[in-house]
Specification:
five-stranded mixed sheet; 155 residues; alpha/beta
Amino acid sequence: RRFAETAQVSELPFVLDVEQSGIRPQHVLDFIDEFQTITGKKLMIYTSMSKWHALIGQNIPWAGQHELWVAHYTTDPQPLIPDSWNKWVFWQHSKTGQLSGHSGDLDLDYFNGGVDALRAYAGRVYQTPLAEGVQQTIEQFAVRLADGRLTPPET
C-alpha cells in the first residue's frame, strides 16, 4: 500500500520484479490487485522464464493481462518468455553493458518495436507529456538506432 500511495506519475509503467526466492503466486496477485485498486494502473512484470516458472508456475491466466519485461541473457534474436505471455515489451538481454564515463556494468534492454513505437509507448502509458530528460534520452536512442549504432532484435 505504501508503494502505491507514494508512487509518482511516470512515462513508463511501474514494474513488479518477480525473481526473489520465497515469493508465492498469491503474494504477486495480492500486490498487483492492491496496486491497481489504489492507483487505477496496471503493473508491468519483470522476470525471467526460469524464475517465473519456478516461483509462480506455468500457464498463469492473470499474468498475461500485464505487460512483460523479460530478462534473458542471450545473443539469440528473441528471448525465452514464460508461457503465461505471448509477447514481451522490454527485454533485458545483458547485465554487462558498458558506457563511456561510467564504471561498472549496466543492464542492456531492447524495446519490442521501433523508435516511433517507443516514443508512442512512453507517451501513452499514463497519458502525460514526457519529462524533458526522458524525451532527451529517447531522442538520443533514436539517433543511435538510426545511425546503426544500436541493433534492435528481429521482431
